[in-house]
Design a protein that fits this description.
Order of helices and strands of chain A: HHEEH
Oligomer: heterodimer
Protein name (chain B): Sodium/pantothenate symporter
Number of strands of chain B: 0
Distance between the termini of chain B: 70 Å
Number of helices of chain B: 20
Structural class of chain A: mainly alpha
Shape of chain B: globular
CATH topology of chain B: Sodium/glucose cotransporter
Organism (chain B): Ureibacillus xyleni
Number of domains of chain B: 1
Largest interface: A-B, 53 and 50 residues
Structural class of chain B: mainly alpha
CATH class of chain B: Mainly Alpha
Number of helices of chain A: 3
Radius of gyration of chain B: 22 Å
GO molecular function, one term (chain B): pantothenate transmembrane transporter activity
Order of helices and strands of chain B: HHHHHHHHHHHHHHHHHHHH
Distance between the termini of chain A: 27 Å
InterPro entries (chain B): Na/Glc_symporter_sf, Na/pantothenate_symporter, Na/solute_symporter, Na/solute_symporter_CS, Sodium:Solute_Symporter
GO biological process, one term (chain B): sodium ion export across plasma membrane
Shape of chain A: elongated
CATH superfamily of chain B: Sodium/glucose cotransporter
Largest sheet of chain B: none
Strand order of the largest sheet of chain A: 1-2
Number of strands of chain A: 2
Strand content of chain B: under 5%
CATH architecture of chain B: Up-down Bundle
């Protein structure tokens, strides 16, 4: 079967797995900072730029980090492949 | 009282949208493959367009109106929950990604159902999918339509039916004549308005509140729990909030209006660019709008109806012209969601039902006139229902997001990546996912402290795999 042999699918499968890995990292950062730093009494919170530290790391810094990570991942691991069967990538 | 300085930017916004519709109509008339052009924009989208149309379709009334209202009452915990939407920017495109692009070209698929049809070769799958799309999306279109009209009503002081007709005529004209290309192009403009509006309002609110530190101090004085991840009433448990990752982050892969966009782009480069731009856009809007809701509390205390927080805040903290631009953002969000749903429901009728079951040999001209008429009639039907929304539709709309995810997620993902997936598995998982979703919602929506969608998605996966393996002999 042609479906199985197409080398482009190897690239596509690997990129899908990278997507899953990125979500796991995203979730870990989001969950870890939010509930790791945010579970104590609000009176004991420390603050960064006016935000409670859990919020700053989990929602703000975490999001920026993910965007940078996604950018690097695409630069390093994502390949240009043609989509049409037998066609060339413009 | 009508504030012209607020209304003029809104009118300008509508004029530009009409212009885009007419320009796109020229493309439709010149195209040699009407279906591909009208329902998919000729598979020519670049990275920026793809990112914007994904983001604008995804971001709806709830991101700009409902969400900030809830954040106003629950505090920072709701912003945390909203950030579960970040994966919608990259995960969907990475997972469907290049495989979906290659396969949908190979199958010459124009709709999501085309893909499922060729993959599973089953009429039952087509009928189930078509029914889910039409029923759920018709309902959510009506709901968004009502939201759009209410927004115009509250901003301009016009009566609801007049507001509804202005909103409906605008959307109907450009979608009907311009097709998917008009939808994508207006999405790009609407998406930009959404991002810019969010940033302006965020800055305006922080200034009006005397800086973040000041605002946080007032929140802590009022109720320290506003600053915790658990919400002002402690209702946001880690498990509950975490399961939202399935509903609004990962499960988005299964939304037909999103998935169809993942087969409409030009090449690998567009995909790569769209992932990055889309994530930045969704991150900005979701973080910004929900944070605005929280910050609004000390700036404008005592608002009772959550949906009014965003419009009232905008009029309070911004000078009128800027307020007009910012208030165009929720309208853009609603319009860009409605237009995607309209063209999708229309393509389901024309391509998946009419061309597949009724008249497979329809001539080009016939398809053309059918497409225009179907789009118009659906649009008008939605208007009719939106004038006086029946209970039943409102009820269906609540299921739309989770229901579609439960129905489609695994049929798409396993259909792409698991070669042993077969039609029996797909049918069983669609039926069990949908039924479970509705049952759990009726009986115990917070079952085991998780969001309703969690168990249907997990179980429909098990059903899919189990049934596919059990019926393997029959299909091979």
């Amino acid at each position: 079967m042609k479906r199985l042999q197409d080398p482009r699918f190897k690239v596509a499968n690997r990129e899908a797995l990278i997507g899953i890995a990125l979500v796991l990292i995203n979730f870990a950062i989001w969950f870890g900072f939010a509930y790791g730093l945010g579970s104590k009494d609000p009176a004991e919170y420390s603050y960064i730029f006016g935000f409670p530290a859990w919020f700053f790391y989990s929602c703000f810094a975490g999001t920026i980090f993910m965007i940078v990570l996604i950018w690097i991942t695409i630069k390093l691991f994502f390949k240009n492949i043609p989509f049409d069967d037998g066609g060339e990538e413009q | 009282m009508i504030q012209w300085q607020v209304i003029i930017p809104l009118i300008l916004f509508l004029i530009i949208i009409f212009a885009i519709g007419f320009w796109a109509n020229k493309q439709v008339r010149q195209s040699d493959s009407f279906l591909q052009e009208y329902f998919l924009g000729g598979r020519e989208m670049g990275g920026f367009l793809l990112a914007m149309t994904m983001m604008a379709t995804y971001g709806s009334a709830s991101s700009f109106i409902g969400g900030p209202g809830v954040a106003y009452n629950l505090g920072l915990g709701w912003v945390l929950l909203a950030m579960a939407q970040l994966p919608a920017g990259y995960f969907v495109l990475m997972v469907l990604g290049k495989k979906f692009a290659i396969i949908s070209r190979r199958y010459e698929a124009i709709t999501l159902i085309d893909f499922l049809k060729k993959r599973y070769e089953s009429n039952v799958v087509i009928i189930l999918s078509a029914i889910s799309i039409i029923v759920f999306l018709f309902a959510s279109m009506t709901a968004q339509w009502v939201g759009g009209a209410r927004l115009i009503e509250s901003l301009t002081g016009l009566h609801y039916p007049v507001a509804l007709i202005i909103f409906a005529v605008t959307v109907l004209v450009y979608v009907t004549i311009g097709g998917f290309r008009a939808v994508a192009l207006t999405d790009a403009m609407q998406g930009s308005v959404m991002i810019v509006g969010t940033i302006i309002l965020l800055i305006g609110t922080i200034i009006a509140g005397g800086g973040i530190e000041n605002i946080m101090t007032s929140l802590a004085t009022e109720n320290p729990k506003m600053l915790t991840p658990f919400g002002s009433d402690g209702s946001l448990t880690p498990l509950y909030v975490s399961t939202f990752w399935i509903l609004i982050g990962l499960g988005v892969v299964g939304l037909p209006q999103i998935a169809v966009r993942a087969m409409s782009y030009k090449n690998s480069q567009s995909l790569h660019r769209a992932i990055l731009i889309g994530t930045i856009g969704i991150g900005t809007i979701m973080f910004g709008m929900h944070l605005i809701g929280v910050l609004a509390r000390p700036v404008l205390p005592g608002i009772e109806v959550g949906d009014k927080v965003m419009p009232l805040l905008t009029l309070e903290v911004l000078p009128p012209i800027l307020a007009g631009i910012v208030l165009a953002a929720p309208m853009a969000a609603i319009m860009s969601t409605v237009n995607a749903l309209l063209i999708l429901v229309s393509s389901t009728f024309v391509k998946d039902i009419y061309l597949h079951f009724i008249n497979p040999n329809a001539a080009e001209g016939q398809i053309k006139s059918r497409s225009f008429w179907v789009t118009t009639i659906i649009g008008l039907a939605v208007v009719l229902f939106a004038l006086n929304p029946p209970e039943f539709l409102i009820w269906l709309n609540l299921f739309a997001f989770g229901g579609l995810e439960s129905a489609f997620l695994w049929s798409i993902v396993l259909g792409l990546y698991w070669k042993r997936a077969n039609k029996y598995g797909a049918i069983a998982s669609m039926i069990s996912g949908l039924t479970l979703y509705i049952l759990i919602d009726r009986l115990s929506p917070h079952i085991f402290g998780m969001h309703t969608v969690t168990i249907p998605i997990l179980l429909s996966f098990v059903v899919f795999v189990g049934v596919s393996l059990a019926t393997e002999r029959r299909t091979s």
